[in-house]
Amino acid sequence: MKKKFKDLLHHKYRSRTISFALIIGAYVIIEILMHSIRLSRLFTGMLVPCCCYIILALSLNLVVGFSGELSLGHAGFMAIGAFTAIIVSGLSTKMIPDTTIRLVLSILSGSVLSGIMGLLISVPVLKLSGDYLAIVTLAFGQIIKSLITNIYLGFDSDGIQFSFVTNELNLEQGKMLLSGPMGATDTAKISNFSSGILLIVLTLYIIYSLIDSKYGRAIMAARDDRIAAESIGINILRSKTLAFVVSAILAGAAGALYALNYSTLQPAKFDFNTSILALVYVVFGGLGNINGTILATTVLYILPELLRSLQDYRMLIYAIVLIIVMQLGSSVRLKRYIEQIKNRFTKKGVTQ
Amino acid sequence: MNTPVLQIKNLGIDFGGLTAVNNLNMEIHEHEIVGLIGPNGAGKTTVFNMLTKVYDPSRGHIYLNGQDIARLDTVAVNKAGIARTFQNIRLFHNLSVMDNVKAGMNNQFTYSIADMLFHTRKRRSNEDMIEEEALKLLKIFHLDESKDTMAGSLPYGAQRKLEIARALASEPKLLLLDEPAAGMNPQETEELMETIRFVRDSFDICILLIEHDMNLVMNICERIYVLNYGMLLAKGNPEEIRNNDKVIKAYLGD
Ligand SMILES: Nc1ncnc2c1ncn2[C@@H]1O[C@H](COP(=O)(O)OP(=O)(O)O)[C@@H](O)[C@H]1O
Ligand SMILES: [Mg+2]
User: Which of A174, A255, B131, B201 is least surrounded by Cβ atoms within 10 Å, i.e. has the fewest?
Assistant: First the structure.
């Protein structure tokens, strides 16, 4: 028992121990506060979205920090998770009255669909790398948003009705689930703070399981040096695909949790800004730094909400940070570029 | 005589108008330590890059244990049995020394993604076994004390050794070393020679090495190929090479 405890603080596991302690500690403190003094609506309203953004940022860090690829379209995965969850939850309301089971089912479907999408686009996309990958993921995010903006979906006793053009579905006493740009209205709010915390814990568990394994080592080796990784038999495409798909699954889960916390949700919520926002959290937290990501997300999400007067400057700050991201965020690649240029000057071949 | 581990036939590559290597024929047999020497720019590293399919040869054939590797890529070539080091070190700088070696063993793990997620016994026993093996390898190179150091912050000589350890970790039949002693002091070089011999004997592999340190080359190589302007200038045992007029003129100097 004593040895087990020492293990927790061993340098190899320290980050992991701190992560779980951080999340569970925060949960306990906030729960106690919620039950003792009455916390403001403003604050309690931020809890679930904050959990979602933490999951989103952690998932993005898997791609940007651990796998070394720049994705500018993670809001797209969040959107897929979100609207899948809304549809699944809406359709199964009668069948599954238990909100907990429905929540689990909705999040599961959202993340699975998002993961499948991640797999589908990762095959062509990950063959590209660097800036091309960034551009394609950016386009992906926009396409997903536009697609959802044009979906009208409802159901009644006759079944599901679906249109890409018009709001005029012939529903007889049915219910609209998605109304184009208006998005979802009248969704049952079934997610809560506890489920958010649980999902963060699960996310941390998955990420730590991955990065400590042979799969994680392959992902990071491919990031640090592609050619060296191939020279010891590591399949670059497979490693990067794994990181990307796991990331998509987690981002989908974040979206699902987010969607089921609001009664209305517009697709425009998941635009480019949200992708960049997640990137800002990751970069501030530190590439490949899990605890940093958690802290940065919490602070950067809550601060602007509390200091609404700063809202005007938010986009300005994002723009500046984006530039920094472009320069430093892909520092692995930057180093490679610099090395290439140096090599050109010293007239040494590419692969010495 | 049985089939050579490596056989190169009429190998050549062009970069645009430049013919970097041409008409190269080489053979390496089991248990041999073979040297590849020549002036800077002769095409030595380019030969390694063709052997590991970092570059696709323009002409010729490469046979590994009799199998033509023309259609294999870098990853498959490693699985087929060739591992290498790089002239300018290419370590995984942000991984620990231990993880660099473990990365080299990546294909010896058998556990699945499900094992990974659920931390099954298979994952644990696999990881424990690999950790043990990796530690053994690190001990050979006297790197076990710094197993938790980031590879990027190791001193230069240690980085070179770690690269060899990582290559060995992938269980090659043929090990390619590109200037392994570059940047090492005489004492480190001496130690390296011992280690290379030890590695050859205990892992029962053959080694092809590029090196400018003639003391090292003449001491541990059983045969030597000399490359000049991409063409084979001479081949033979150290004694023959040392006394070859063409080699003396082109490379060894007076
Ligand atoms: N990728 C490349 N593109 C163009 N030229 C190259 C490339 N790689 C190597 N070379 C050229 O091939 C020749 C041999 O280089 P190299 O094999 O590195 O020499 P060595 O290792 O013997 O010093 C040099 O003239 C070098 O400039
Ligand atoms: Mg060279």
Answer: B201
Whether B167 sits inside 8 A of A209 (CB atoms) is no
Enter the pTM of the model: 0.89
Using the predicted structure, report yes or no on whether residue A11 has a pLDDT greater than 80: no
How much distance in Å is there from the Cα of B46 to the middle of ligand 1?
Answer: 6
Minimal CA separation from B190 to chain A, in Å: 24
Matching CATH number, B6-87+171-252, of 3.30.1780.10, 3.40.50.10490, 3.20.20.10, 3.40.50.300: 3.40.50.300
Pocket test for ligand 1, best of B14, B15, B49, B53 (most atoms within 8 A of CB): B15
Q: Helix or strand or coil: residue B92?
A: coil
pLDDT digits (tens, 9 = 90+) for A227-270: 999 999 999 999 999 999 999 999 999 999 999 999 889 998 99
Instruction: Give tens-digit pLDDT for B64-73.
Output: 999 999 899 9
ipTM of this model? 0.94
Dihedral of alpha carbons A192, A197, A200, A202, sign: negative
Q: Are A287 and A61 in contact (CB under 8 A)?
A: yes
* CA A38, A43, A49, A53 torsion-angle sign: negative
Residue A351 has pLDDT above 60, yes or no: no
Residues of A within 8 A of B43 (CB-CB) are: none
CB under 8 Å to B83, separation ≥6 — which residues? A231, A232, B104, B167, B168, B170, B171, B172, B174, B175, B176
β-pairing, B59-64 vs B206-210, is unpaired
Residue nearest to atom 2 of ligand 1 (CA): A349
Whole-angstrom distance, CA of residue A200 vs CA of residue A344 = 46
